[in-house]
Amino acid sequence: MACSLVFEGWPAFTAGVLGTSSLTRGWPPNLAHGWQVCQFVQRRAGGLVLAEHGFHGAQEGSYMAKILLVEDDPSVLRTLERMLKSAGHDVLGVGDIPGALQLLEKEQVDVVITDIVLPGASGLELLRHLQDNHPHLPAIVITGEPTLDSAVEAVRARAFEYLAKPISKHQLLRTVGQAVHIKYLEDERRRLEAANRAYQENLEKLVAERTQALQKSEASLRQSEQQLHALAARLIHIREAERAQMAREIHDELGQLLTGLKMDLHWLMRQCQDPSKKSTPEAIARRLQDALAITDDTIKCVQRLAAELRPSVLDKLGLCAALRHELRQFADRSSLEIEINLPDEEPPLPPEMAMAFFRITQEALTNVARHAQATKVTVTLRPAPQGWELLITDNGRGIREEDILHSNALGLLGMKERLLPWGGSVTFSAVPSGGTCVRAFLPRQSDNNRGNDHEKHSHSG
């Protein structure tokens, strides 16, 4: 790296390679000290360059730039403009610092070239302004009155270069090319740093979003597992409760009927075995009539218990008939107004899928009776795009979102579970006019295949 200073009033000289002892031999003390300043400036980090002859990255005319030229001498201004424009640079010439500041506010320049001695203010003040407001904008100082003090001040104000007049075209264009190249590298470094920061911020944001989504998924999975455990426990409880109820009904009702029938038969048997206790034909006929009545009641009781376990009308007459029968019974028990909208033809659903629709209707009607405070229920079974849908709508108080998401809403979860083997779904929503709508959907395309697979699995188990 080499440095050159040309001072008017001193013999012209050119510095060679730094560190050569003959360079400063015979120099006045103040100029020798100034050369040491140049050496310090060139070595410091981020180095300010003073005539960097060894730099090969910027050749003359290889970088086109917009240059702000501040020079109060019109002839020198025109000469420098011609030099710069001959290399393709765009030059904005001005004769004082106020004009330069105005141009800096309006124009985006790449390099500033300024004289030191200017009307009203020193070019060093412009350097300090650039240092404070445009720290990445390189500034080249030219002066016809070079002094050690001004050189030091220029160095302190982070001037890119300090040149003394007269300046050759080659020297000027080379220095400008170097300044533009360094600015380009600095701008590119800042651009890459900004892009890297933006990438890191975006990556951190993406990681945070993915982490939040993963945490939400894990929480949802834990909640689903808890709900499934609770549903399994509820199903076991319901099964045991149904068995207990069935046992009570068999014991209390069917058992009593059979006991009465046994007593009548035992009385008739004694009449046949003991001639002394022979009763009149009328008495025997009455006993036989009582036994027949008890037998009829027993048959009805068995039929009712079997229907509660699995409605026979569903197997014999189909889903539509089973729904009508269930809704009529519900209307008699609840005194609610019932509206039924069923298709004219029986839906082509396998028995297990029809049973799922039927059980969902029973569960939804139970919820209406317990919670809805409704006066009317509408049940609709109709074809939907690529499937069948069952709608149970009431005009009650309406379901809330927290009711649907509540961990204890096992009845709602149970309805959803009923349709999962066939890829179906159950949704719950509030009706805008008031009330709740339960929508159950079963796909049509794979109804038969899935139903057959389900039945095979049930039989094989």
List the SSEs and their pairings:
Elements: H1 29-43, E1 66-70, H2 74-86, E2 90-94, H3 97-106, E3 111-115, E4 117-118, E5 121-122, H4 123-133, E6 139-143, H5 148-156, E7 161-164, H6 169-273, H7 281-309, H8 312-317, H9 319-334, E8 337-341, H10 351-372, E9 376-384, E10 387-394, H11 401-405, H12 410-419, E11 425-430, E12 436-443, H13 447-460
Parallel strand pairs: 1-2, 1-3, 3-6, 6-7, 8-9
Antiparallel strand pairs: 4-5, 9-10, 10-12, 11-12
Helix pairs in contact: 1-5, 6-7, 6-12, 9-10, 10-12
State the main characteristics.
alpha/beta; five-stranded mixed β-sheet; disordered N terminus; five-stranded parallel β-sheet; Heat Shock Protein 90; Rossmann fold
